[in-house]
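Please decode residue identities from the backbone states below.
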């Protein structure tokens, strides 16, 4: 059976262009009522206009869908709350929140200003936190919520000239790891997408013969799955782009247990480093206590 979002209210941040636009159009086409949020600024976050969000709302309405525009910035608690308030005031609730809004201020670490570092952290990390915090009590009370965060290969694996962006993007994974545990009892599921898409943000960074395969619409199905009622996954990260979809996991090596009752020197670490770093039997953990259990069991062996 087709996945539908009838009677669901979705908020998509940064939905005036690129990936957010694609997510918003898709959810609306499948029956969701969508808040199309976009500040309408440049890639670096400067400026603003109602045009981007208005155009996507017009597209959704022209196709027979339901949407409302919101132009507030995700990057302050009050304006993020106003985005969620648009969902409540217009449609009475919020079921789905896709935290997608983002900017770039690329510079090497030697050259980046602390202001540009903080602005990027604020939009990506705090913007997602503020929007989610505003939606959370509504989702908790109704016992239903689907939240998506947007990370990046730059954060998961590193990218030259993007220390601010990479830090913010991986911080979102830490946010999800804890939040997924708090959401579970109220059926609020939190997952993360790591997109690869040709948008105005990336078009100058990618060779054209590769970029032509990177339609944002190829990322949206993974996001749309995460926000479906039927999807029971939580705490997942999925890389998606050009028709490629792959789960991403943080894993810890089997490690070595030297024992806690004898001195350990840096020389021992040096001599055992290959074993410490051997990932062949690595495992993920569902939460931090699973690591403590593992270490505890090794102690009692
Ligand atoms: P984009 O620049 O086309 O879209 C981002 C949208 O967010 C813009 O419409 C912009 O106006 C909006 N926005 C920026 N700051 C905002 C704020 N404070 N409040 C509300 N809206 C704001 O870029 P794209 O590529 O669609 O990016 C979407 C998300 O995907 C971003 O979080 C980006 O970091 C992430 N991403 C994109 C990748 C790609 O390959 N395109 C790769 C990895 C991550």
């Amino acid at each position: 059976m087709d996945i539908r979002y009838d009677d669901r209210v979705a908020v998509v941040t940064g939905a005036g262009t690129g990936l957010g636009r694609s997510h918003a159009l898709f959810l609306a086409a499948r029956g969701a009522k969508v808040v199309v949020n976009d500040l309408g600024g440049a890639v670096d976050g400067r400026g603003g206009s109602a045009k981007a969000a208005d155009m996507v709302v017009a597209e959704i309405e022209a196709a027979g869908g339901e949407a409302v525009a919101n132009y507030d910035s995700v990057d302050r608690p009050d304006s993020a709350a106003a985005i969620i308030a648009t969902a409540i005031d217009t449609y009475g609730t919020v079921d789905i929140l896709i935290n997608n809004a983002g900017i770039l201020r690329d510079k090497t670490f030697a050259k980046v200003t602390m202001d540009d570092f903080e602005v990027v952290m604020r939009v990506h990390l705090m913007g997602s936190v503020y929007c989610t915090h505003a939606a959370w009590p509504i989702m908790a009370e109704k016992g239903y919520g689907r939240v998506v965060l947007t990370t990046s290969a730059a954060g998961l694996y590193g990218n030259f000239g993007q220390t601010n962006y990479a830090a913010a993007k991986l911080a979102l994974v830490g946010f999800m790891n804890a939040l997924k545990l708090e959401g579970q009892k109220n059926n609020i599921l939190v997952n993360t997408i790591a997109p690869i898409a040709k948008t105005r943000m990336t078009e100058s960074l990618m060779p054209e013969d590769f970029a032509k395969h990177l339609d944002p619409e190829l990322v949206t199905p993974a996001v749309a799955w995460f926000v479906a009622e039927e999807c029971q996954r939580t705490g997942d990260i999925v890389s998606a782009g050009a028709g490629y979809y792959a789960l991403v996991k943080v894993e810890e090596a089997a490690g070595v247990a030297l024992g806690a009752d004898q001195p350990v020197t840096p020389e021992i670490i040096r001599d055992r480093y290959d074993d410490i770093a051997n990932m062949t039997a690595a495992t993920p953990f569902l939460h931090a206590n699973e690591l403590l259990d593992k270490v505890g069991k090794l102690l009692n062996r």
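Observation: Residues 15 and 261 are 56 Å apart (CA to CA).
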